[in-house]
């Protein structure tokens, strides 16, 4: 099946399994796969008259726009700091459920919302599965940084862990990408010459002054739904 069909399959399966009449607050992730999840939620709200009280907390400007476009109830962390289920995509999921996120540049609010949720449910197409982190996603691990510190942080990451951390440049704007929170993004392409302890790496990265957040989701995902090429759904937990 086409990639979009695989994304849709994963999204609809996860929504139907995890968004029930008891679900009050859902975190809405960012990217392309989540669009199918929001479409399924909207279908159940508007066609089936279900989930009328569901409140959707966004993880980016994009997610907020999506919630508004489908006329769903928009929430925020001020009013809804405790989230039942967060649903989000990922760039890669390894065999231990470590995620790389941030391909869409929204990792900061995504990780915050995921941290406020009882469970993070990941939806992805089959191209996101890997045995060892970095096998599929070759664009590096996104790291959100305070703009003034992007060069010293780059140098420190490369000194600590090797590889290369590059500033993510905008395409339709001169200069670097600016995130929804006004920060820069470094994409750290590591050399998987040795098995990294990703929890250790994540903690060390977070200790570098100026690092705001990393796209390493080490112990966040509760369950992952992969839409497979043969039209089945593979669940990993
Ligand atoms: O940027 C992100 O973390 C997004 O969730 C992204 O990784 C998933 O994007 P996709 O659903 O378009 O593949």
TrEMBL record:
GO terms for cellular component: cytoplasm. It catalyses: aldehydo-D-ribose 5-phosphate = D-ribulose 5-phosphate. It comes from the Eukaryota. One of its GO terms (molecular function) is ribose-5-phosphate isomerase activity. Pathway: Carbohydrate degradation; pentose phosphate pathway; D-ribose 5-phosphate from D-ribulose 5-phosphate (non-oxidative stage): step 1/1. Its EC number is 5.3.1.6. GO terms for biological process: D-ribose metabolic process; pentose-phosphate shunt, non-oxidative branch. Keywords: Isomerase. Belongs to the ribose 5-phosphate isomerase family. This is ribose-5-phosphate isomerase. It comes from Drosophila lebanonensis (Fruit fly). The gene is LOC115630600. The chain holds residues 50 to 286 of 287 of the full protein.
């Amino acid at each position: 099946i086409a990639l979009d069909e695989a994304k849709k399959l994963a999204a609809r399966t996860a929504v139907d399994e995890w968004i029930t009449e008891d679900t009050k607050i859902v975190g809405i992730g960012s990217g392309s796969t989540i669009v199918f999840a929001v479409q399924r939620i909207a279908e159940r709200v508007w066609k089936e008259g279900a989930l009328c009280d569901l409140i959707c907390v966004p993880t980016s400007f994009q997610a907020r726009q999506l919630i508004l476009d489908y006329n769903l109830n928009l929430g925020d962390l001020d009013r809804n700091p405790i989230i039942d289920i967060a649903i989000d995509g990922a760039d890669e999921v390894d065999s231990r459920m470590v995620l790389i996120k941030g391909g869409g540049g929204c990792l900061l609010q995504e990780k915050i919302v995921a941290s406020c949720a009882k469970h993070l449910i990941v939806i992805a197409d089959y191209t996101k599965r890997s045995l060892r982190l970095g096998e599929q996603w070759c664009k590096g691990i996104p790291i959100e940084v305070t703009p003034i510190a992007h060069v010293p942080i780059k140098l420190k990451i490369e000194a600590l862990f090797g590889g290369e951390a590059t500033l993510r440049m905008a395409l339709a704007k001169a200069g670097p990408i600016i995130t929804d929170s006004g920060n820069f993004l470094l994409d750290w392409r590591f050399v998987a010459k040795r098995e990294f302890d990703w929890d250790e790496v994540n903690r060390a990265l977070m200790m570098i002054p100026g690092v705001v957040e990393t796209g390493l989701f080490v112990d966040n995902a509760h369950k992952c739904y992969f839409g497979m090429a043969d039209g089945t759904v593979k669940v990993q937990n």
